[in-house]
Amino acid sequence: MRRRPRAKASVLAEGEPMIWLTAGGLTVAILMIAGLLALVTVQGLATLWPVPLTRIRLANGVQHMGEVARSELFRPPAAFWPSLAPEAERRARDEAAGQDGRLRRRLIRIGNFEITGEHFQWVNDFEVVAEEQPEWAIVVERMSWGRFYGIPIAFVEDGRRVAETPQAAWELFRRHHGEVAARRARRRRLETREIGAINAALESARLALRAAEQRNGADAPATQARRRAYEAAEVRGSNEYARVRAEIAALDAANARYRMVFRTAGDRETTLDLAAVVRAYPANQLRWIDRLGIYASRWTEFLTAEPREANSEGGVFPAIFGTVLMTLIMSFAVAPLGVMAALYLREYAKAGAAVSAVRIAVNNLAGVPSIVFGVFGLGFFCYLIGARLDELFFAARLPNPTFGKGGLLWASMTLALLTLPVVIVATEEALSAVPNSMREGSYACGAGKWQTIRRIVLPRAMPGILTGMILAMARGAGEVAPLMLVGAVKLAPELPLDSVFPYLHPERSFMHLGFHIYDLGFQSQNSEAAKPMVFTTTLLLMALIFALNVAAVRLRSRLRRKFVSAAF
Amino acid sequence: MHSTTHLEAGPRGDTVREEATDRLARIAAGESVPTVTHPEIEQEPIVLETRDFCLHYGPKQALFDINVKVARGKVTALIGPSGCGKSTLIRSVNRINDLLSTVHIRGDMLLAGESIYAPGVDVIGLRKRMGMVFQKPNPFPMSIYENVVYPLRIDGERNRRVLDEVCERSLRGAALWEEVKDRLQDNALSLSGGQQQRLCIARAIAAEPEILLMDEPCSALDPIATTKIENLIEQLKGDYSILIVTHNMQQAARTSDYTAFMYLGHLLEFGRTETIFQTPRLIETQDYVTGRFG
Ligand SMILES: Nc1ncnc2c1ncn2[C@@H]1O[C@H](COP(=O)(O)OP(=O)(O)OP(=O)(O)O)[C@@H](O)[C@H]1O
Ligand SMILES: [Mg+2]
Fold first, then answer.
1. Average pLDDT estimate for A284-299
2. Number of domain units in chain A
3. pLDDT of A474-517, one tens digit each?
4. Any idea what the CATH number is for the domain that residue A544 is in?
């Protein structure tokens, strides 16, 4: 018998080049992702670490003191050289000769903005004549004006200078700062909570009066009663207000007793109120353990406090809170909507041109730029539905909009719309992956269609649906562009969840980590100081999304163990 | 007509061969051929019968004028080469095939004298009177207990005592009780393949159906599990009427009372199992049961 000759095993048959190609693709993808993650992680973690303070004296006699932010080699332009004095030019040329024509310079965070008018200063190495780390140099983080760097020379108590050496002044600072900070916190609580409550009571009396006027006319007896109630509330409110004001004044007076006098790098004496100081530490005397303590305290502040200084200092708690709340509301909105839509498409609709058209449309929706969703949300939710709601239920507050503007609810709805395609597509996939034999088994038991869907198909498809939800949540939590139009703000005065009835205020604008990052990176006055915070906030946002995902993935794997197993 | 047919060589054998060739030519031409039905079935009480039942998958006809009867309390086996329409027929009985949009049927079936395919029939009510076991075990993704009582659950039964009782009775009926009685709340998917199939049988008999449809229930099982299920069928017989598809001739011969031989969508011969296996009327049946053709 003649056998048909077979082809020899070749490189192409083995597919060796394909292995290399696919592995290469994977490597590139992993490298890019890992690079991004590493950059964000390293930068984000380094931001809050306390670094030493350096004092630099320049050839022209100017002194700077501050934290070195970064250092770089730069190639000076031709016009640079003639601008230098002959001595400086000689030193610069010497330095450049050893460095391939480039010069080293450092960016120093010099702080003391009210004195210097700058937050940062570039310093060329060839201009430096002396450099040291003064033992008593102190970093002061303040409520306003950014950081302050100086050496304490005295402590002032009730207008008298009670300590005249750095060490003694620092000792007194440490003794008194705790109580001062506690009083400041109490003052802040009074200002926000108590005055807020007074205003809320007054506002609700005013709204009741307005509503009565609109309903019954200005002279009706019911309106008169409301007016009397409003006037009583006004009196009560101003009494309360005076009481709180008095308490605040007392706190202020107690705090004003303590001040500290510093000498700056420019040899000026400056007096700081202790009440203005958030945190201070002698940067050049820190042991490891002290540094760790400061690092931890800064992270705590970052995670739990409100922002200061146009968001470049302080914490991002309102933004974390807003992001989480918005993502949750979005998930609760998109899950039932997407699952129902997919159920109809996959289980009920007769396959045909119409269904295919809908499916294509849904898939294309995923490609629509997110800003378009923002525009739609603004027009549809805020100006159409929101304005309607205002007319119907909040007429007394007009012309101030309640729901007729961007807010937490509308932002969540807009993102729900944005992530809807993801959920629909994933759910459809999950539904079609349910083996037909299970459906048939259920029908053969005499189950109806809905019984089969509810008892067999949905539970079995749940892991896949959750996968879709995970993707949707990650997408929604990281989205920024549409939020700018429908309710995310740079600084929200109030959290959308508080102790005032009805506790959840879905109409309020809110802060969002993604928007916060944009604001820090591109809208900040002090962009050099804000830049490291961009990384820290990004790190936080990624951690948050990661945490949400881990929770969902664990839920999914629990379900998967339950519903899908590899018997046989 | 009642005499046995001898298929040995000789003049008689030749005519039989010629008739068979003629029949195959007519089947190939897409015509219906009459079924040779042995008369014993006329004495039996009938639970299910089909009347000139035809079925098309789109343009392709899969069943041609099927007339078959299932005797009450007896086991009826459907045999025939692969692709001859056994599954199609058995899935038509509880209208599971209706779920495919391409399926069209002609003719009718009667369950205890009531039409299955008449317009306006309550399909779900109909399926509740039947139990079905599929070729591949298809337990639901839930506990063993919930699997068994599923038919009662969908009827809205909540009474724990009733459910417990049905669960135990069905699992005993399916010879699975001893193996799973301590782990009823475990996931059904953690059972072995053979256990899963017996679980599906328990589920099928939980609602005490009038007829039990089994499509190659042993094809995925090892010989031990197969034996168990065969014994089970033996026990269920009498209480239940069973229609079973099988490729295993010994199994058909051992377990069934009546046998229907199908070929290319046609029912060729139908009669008592001993007759079909020992002295069939048609040479095709003879060839198939002796393994010479198919
Ligand atoms: N969903 C379907 N669509 C179109 N044709 C089908 C479909 N299901 C079955 N058929 C065709 O109908 C004929 C009968 O199939 P059926 O599954 O009933 O055979 P069977 O006798 O059960 O075979 P086996 O013993 O291999 O299970 C076959 O020709 C098959 O190709
Ligand atoms: Mg089959």
1. 93
2. 3
3. 888 888 889 989 888 888 777 777 766 677 777 788 888 888 88
4. 1.10.3720.10
Last residue of a domain, one of A288, A308, A336: A288
- d(CA A197, ligand 2 centre) in Å: 75
Cβ of residue B87 lying under 6 Å from some atom of ligand 1: yes
B55, B60, B101: residue to mutate for ligand 1 pocket, most atoms within 8 A of CB: B60
**Does a structural domain hold residue A189?**
yes
| A513, part of any domain | yes
ipTM of the complex: 0.90
B189 → closest Cβ in A442, A448, A567: A567
The answer on A328 and A441 residing in a single domain is: yes
Give the distance (Å) from ligand 2 centre to CA of residue B34: 23
In whole angstroms, give the CA distance from residue A143 to residue A155.
19
Q: Which of A77, A110, A133 is the last residue of a domain?
A: A133
> Which domain range does residue A388 map to?
317-566
Per-residue pLDDT averaged across A540-563, rounded? Answer: 82
- What tens digit of pLDDT does each residue of B178-232 get? 899 999 999 898 898 888 999 999 999 998 898 999 999 888 777 887 888 888 8
Contacts of B141 in chain A (CB under 8 A): 438, 456, 459-460, 562-564
pTM metric for this prediction: 0.80
Is residue A48 situated within a structural domain?
no
Do residues A367 and A278 share a domain? Answer: no
> What's the token pair of residue A510?
């809110």
**Whether residues A330 and A477 fall in one domain:** yes
Is any ligand 1 atom within 6 A of the Cβ of residue B91?
Answer: no
Residue with the smallest CA separation from ligand 1 atom 11 is B62
3-state SS record for chain B: CCCCCCCCCCHHHHHHHHHHHHHHHHHHCCCCCCCEECHHHHHCCEEEEEEEEEEEECCEEEEEEECCEEECCCEEEEECCCCCCHHHHHHHHCCHHHHCCCEEEEEEEEECCEECCCCCCCHHHHHHCEEEECCCCCCCCCEHHHHHCHHHHHCCCCCHHHHHHHHHHHHHHCCCHHHHCCCCCCEHHHCCHHHHHHHHHHHHHHCCCCEEEEECCCCCCCHHHHHHHHHHHHHHECCEEEEEECCCHHHHHHHCCEEEEEECCEEEEEEEHHHHHHCCCCHHHHHHHCCCCC
The shortest C-alpha distance from A458 to chain B (Å) reads 11
Domain co-membership, A537 together with A435: yes
Nearest Cα residue to atom 2 of ligand 1:
B57
How far apart are the CA of A431 and the nearest CA of chain B, in angstroms?
A: 14
* Among the partner residues A350, A446, A459, nearest to B124 by beta-carbon distance: A446
Residues of chain A contacting residue B130, judged by C-beta atoms under 8 Å apart? 444
Within-domain flag for A12? no
Tell whether A231 and A359 lie within a shared domain: no
Residue from the list B96, B196, B200 with its beta carbon closest to the beta carbon of A567: B196
pLDDT in tens, A323-375: 989 999 999 999 999 999 999 998 888 888 888 999 899 888 888 899 999 99
Asked if residue B25 has its Cβ within 6 Å of ligand 1, the reply is no
